[in-house]
Write a structure and sequence with these properties.
about 170 residues, mainly alpha, 8 helices, globular
């Protein structure tokens, strides 16, 4: 198998995963599930001699599954999928993805009625996002913070805001 075919599978898998996320965020559960199925089809057909190791993998795809569950499924299932994804994203190159997935896991905790537990996770995410400098983690953090609006007068949210301001003010 030539490397172009393998790279094509990784690109297709990522494209299908993104398509699944967009569909889920739009409330299109069936389309989201179909796109995830196609992403898994491509991921499962990777070659061990992949020319782009780590570019996109099952570890990343599990995070996309969590996002889809978060928007068109069960937040409890999403939370567990995020936890599995974070647990498998261990390399230093995957730090940005870990922050993204952990922030999404915090969002699942908010939707499950655990804003304090979500804020605890978000504190970790802020610290990690500050060291990576990634744009996507900061966007995800902002979205999660917006979900905490009902608790904006609570001390745990004020502490989170203080940390955000400290990090962004550098």
């Amino acid at each position: 198998m030539d490397s172009e075919t393998v790279a094509g599978r990784l690109v297709r898998a990522r494209a299908h995963a993104l398509q699944a996320e967009v569909a889920a965020r739009s409330g299109q559960g069936r389309q989201s599930g179909a796109a995830l199925g196609l992403a898994w089809y491509d991921i499962e057909r990777q070659s061990p001699d992949d020319p782009l190791p780590g570019a996109f993998s099952a570890e990343y795809l599990r995070g996309f599954e969590g996002v889809c569950q978060l928007y068109v499924g069960d937040p409890a299932v999403a939370h567990d999928q995020f936890a599995a994804s974070v647990g498998s994203l261990g390399s230093p190159r995957q730090k940005v993805q870990r922050v993204i997935v952990t922030t999404d896991q915090a969002l699942a905790r908010i939707r499950l009625g655990g804003p304090h537990a979500a804020a605890d996770l978000l504190h970790e995410c802020i610290t990690a996002a500050a060291s990576t400098g990634g744009r996507v983690p900061m966007i995800r953090l902002w979205r999660a913070r917006q979900e905490l609006r009902p608790w904006r007068h609570e001390g745990f949210v004020s502490d989170l805001d203080d940390q955000l301001l400290d990090v962004l003010g550098r």
